[in-house]
Amino acid sequence: xxxxxxxxxxxxxxxxxxxxxxxxxxxxxxxxxxxxxxxxxxxxxxxxxxxxxxxxxxxxxxxxxxxxxxxxxxxxxxxxxxxxxxxxxxxxxxxxxxxxxxxxxxxxxxxxxxxxxxxxxxxxxxxxxxxxxxxxxxxxxxxxxxxxxxxxxxxxxxxxxxxxxxxxxxxxxxxxxxxxxxxxxxxxx
Length: 189
Description:
alpha/beta, two-stranded antiparallel sheet, 24% helix
């Protein structure tokens, strides 16, 4: 029986990222977002981009966890929950290697829990940390792992408490990446 792999709109896949969570991580940015937050941190990923097969992303994730000292994965966007089936498939793969799966979403945890979507529920039951809520530029205090102080850092797996307690006041860092000849800045501004 062959596995089904979703096609989804991906903005960027990169390793290693050290500015969006604990340690050396895989960074995956979904593209596409209908939220239109004023001052969006990643406007380049608002529109839906090039379609990618989740198998390619899964192969990349498996390779990095098996070959390198990978501490976790951070998934952002755009809005990852705009493509819940592909997000679920990626999270299920990452879960085989780590509990440190951190997802950024413009939706609140409560909004996501209310959705009548099995894939969204699966993701919320599997990830380690959710940073939720709409980014509000006027509430960006320049601290921590969240973009603005109205957002919550929700630790969903207790064993990650030690890694992420205090993440709301971490010193922010940004990284300059060269991806396909283009300069990309990763991190929270």
